[in-house]
């Protein structure tokens, strides 16, 4: 029987709507008939309800931050959306989130699933930078935030981080010592492409192509970063 991957999707005040809803749509889409559902999604937050992007959407999350934190080893994919990140990283909640991110990267994949993925979308990569896990990696984020991403990775490293920030639709930033793969999506809608790529790696090309077809999404290549 094919493994089921548990996906935890963070939502915090001011999180961009498509940053978390894009991956949620992709990971929760039913697979082709006769194929077991490969993903189970859980939204979580410090707040219930939580107001996302400029107060435009109020969400009732599935779980509290503390409950997901307590059972973190049971989640195979952790999705970190972007939004009003820069000022949020210095708050008590922001620090708890960066600590959660760092701890997730230190968890070996579960035996049955065989894979664990940390996925950031848009400026969510800045939270990964604040967690100090992007040194010596090739990464990406929203095209307006490349410089601040490099600055934050250097600050977290206490000097030159040797982080290479690139203009791509998404980036496979490699694995941690524990075997956790880090995937960064570029801005906003890039999170859909990144999620489809993760699905292709974990559940196969057939499921990824079916999902893209069902949601009527034209996939972009990894090299199709936004801007010139």
UniProtKB/TrEMBL annotation:
Any GO molecular function: transferase activity
Domain of life assignment: Eukaryota
Transmembrane segments: none
Keyword Transferase: yes
Keyword Transferase among UniProt keywords: yes
One of the Pfam families matching this protein, by short name: DJ-1_PfpI
Gene3D superfamilies, alphabetized: 3.40.50.880
Keywords: Glutamine amidotransferase, Transferase
Domain DJ-1/PfpI, residue spans: 7-151
Protein name: Class I glutamine amidotransferase-like protein
Source organism (scientific name): Pleomassaria siparia CBS 279.74
